[in-house]
Task: structure prediction
Amino acid sequence: MKPLKKSARKPKGKKAMLLGVGLDNKDGHVRVTRGENFQLVGGSKETHEVMQEGAVKINEELKKRGKHLEEVTKKEFIEIASKAMGK
Result:
């Protein structure tokens, strides 16, 4: 029996999470959004929305690649995040 490819297995004991922190809030409103593998805190309405959109796009790209956040390399994550943020 062949072992599963590394990308097909979820690493045991490892967990990765995106953390977004917005520091430009001046209206006093506390914004918190939690998702499958991300938590976003703070920021103005506009900044928080940008963080939400980015986190969702990153998760969509991970799903397309059949990978979990904890499985991607730094280089691959930068590529995914840059694509998600339109850069």
DSSP finds two helices and three strands in the chain. The longest helix spans residues 45-65. The first strand starts at residue 18 and ends at 22.
